[in-house]
Amino acid sequence: MWWHQRNLCFRHPIEDYSSGDLEKEVATIAETDESAGSEGVIDSHKRREILSRRPSYRKILNELSSDVPGVPKIEEEKSGEEGTLPHITTMAVPTSIYQTSTGQYIAIAQGGAIQISNPGSDGVQGLQALTMTNSGAPPPGATIVQYAAQSADGTQQFFVPGSQVVVQDEETELAPSHMAATTGDMPTYQIRAPTTALPQGVMMAASPGSLHSPQQLAEEATRKRELRLMKNREAAKECRRRKKEYVKCLESRVAVLEVQNKKLIEELETLKDICSPKTD
DNA sequence: CACGAAAACCGTCAGCGGTT
DNA sequence: AACCGCTGACGGTTTTCGTG
Q1: Who's near A31: CB < 8 A, 6+ residues apart?
Q2: Residue A279 CA to C6 C1' — how many Å?
Q3: Highest-confidence segment of A62-71, A77-86, A182-191, A208-217
Q4: Where is the KID domain (predicted)?
Q5: In the structure, how far is the CA atom of residue A179 from the C1' atom of nucleotide B3, in angstroms?
Q6: Whole-prediction pTM
Q7: How far apart are alpha carbons A37 and A52 in whole angstroms?
Q8: Is the N end or the C end of chain A the one with fewer CB atoms within 10 Å?
Q9: How far is CA A258 from CA A12, A14, A101, A124, A262, in A?
Q10: What nucleotides of chain C have any atom within 7 angstroms of a protein Cβ?
């Protein structure tokens, strides 16, 4: 049922409301209803073919957005692996570039300088300061990485070279993310050599060396799986976000159509009165 | 306030279509 | 064929809300 409606919506983008072309819109709606009614005629194979072509929410919403002014479009994702990192153009040649779970890019220059850039922001504004300390409390071999989390949830995951992992400190990890955001507490991360079991969401960067032993192969398989799960996790989040946006868009359209329907009914009644005056 | 139901959210898996 | 992204389905967890 859901896909049925979705496909209808996709195949029959309703015209621009701002044009005020009500006749066109009503015709479109009528056409939609008609096609819905004739669906029973389609043989099962064809129907399955149609229903299986599931346009993404981004496509659907962009269709709607192009018709309805004021509805923001979902930007087309640039293929992240295209190699050109946005907003990192004038820095020293980095030795490593990593991407966080929230899409930010972290570049570690040869001098140890670290830059974070947001793909969604413009130019230098996307860069965030990041401080590193190696002295004091941290356990041997650990590097404290602190930065001001920009995202609301404040959770970040890093890729770090040299078979190291980034682990969020327990204090900030356990505290509710919104508290950290509102109190200004900076989440603290440690770069460590991986222990036996990786915490959820923490990935180990693959060293580009060759993998020989069964243990290494198993680790590689595990790493690939973790990477796939992480990507799918993010994809699921994004998919749900689009779906919610899509549903909101539909709801707003329902509200608009109800108002217009009401106006049309009133207009029809007025015309009826004009065309058939009382004979009394 | 305690409790249970409902709603919302999340991670994972499976399957599909598109791309290389 | 392998890989990848998208999304429905499922089950678990968390949050919200109504009731006693």
Answers
A1: A12
A2: 64
A3: A208-217
A4: 24-83
A5: 28
A6: 0.44
A7: 19
A8: C
A9: 18, 14, 41, 46, 6
A10: 4-9
Give distance CA A196 / C1' B15 (Å): 33
> Which nucleotide is at minimal CA–C1' distance from A201?
B11
Distance in Å, residue A230 CA to nucleotide B5 C1'? 32
Q: Which of A138, A190, A191 is nearest to A163 (CA)?
A: A191
- Nearest residue to A15 via CA among A78, A68, A92, A89: A68
What's the pLDDT tens digit per position in A130-164? 323 232 223 323 332 333 333 333 333 343 333 33
Strand C within 7 A of A87 CB:
no
Residue A37 token pair: 């009614």
Confirm whether any atom of chain C, the nucleic acid strand, is less than 7 Å from CB of A243: yes
Instruction: Note the pLDDT tens digit of each residue in A6-30.
Output: 333 322 222 222 222 322 333 333 3
